[in-house]
Amino acid sequence: MKRLMIASALALWSLPLLAAPGHEYAFGKPAAAAQATRTVEVVMGDMYFEPRALQVKAGETVRFVLVNNGQVPHEFNLGDAAMHARHQQEMLAMQGQMDHSAMGHGGMNHGGDDHGAMGSGGMQHDDPNMVMVAPGKRAELTWTFSQSTPIEFACNVPGHYQAGMVGKLTIAK
């Protein structure tokens, strides 16, 4: 039963959360790791990022090395507050689908916080501005920042942003 529930959750996670084709980002674009001019390590623990704030320069390409030292999957997502709010709603809807599918297969998820099914190491979103990292795993995201605009890096797994898993990213001119 548990394997079926995990398989269902993984199938749901393979669906795109936001439409990637043609998606524009005012703050920059994805880049190849070889183009990076700087590497920044970001440690993700349960309900925190270290460091909590980052500064980059417009035109700079940064390779983020993401290390999940927590016990549950975490997401590293670049965006403004409105983008994070939209993504959180999509994540909540997806979690509701996982909870509902688990109940249909004989399992019950009363707490709504069953993150065990949400991270498997190979799981990725379709949007280039985010990556999901399983507990004890590492991942990378490389980004070229284009203009000075206020953005955040955040984990939008339901409840994580609200628990403080968000940091300020300043793009200097």
Automatic annotation (TrEMBL):
Pfam family membership, one: Copper-bind
N-terminal signal peptide: 1-19
Keywords annotated in UniProt: Copper, Metal-binding, Signal
Domain named Blue (type 1) copper: residues: 39-171
Protein name: Cupredoxin family protein
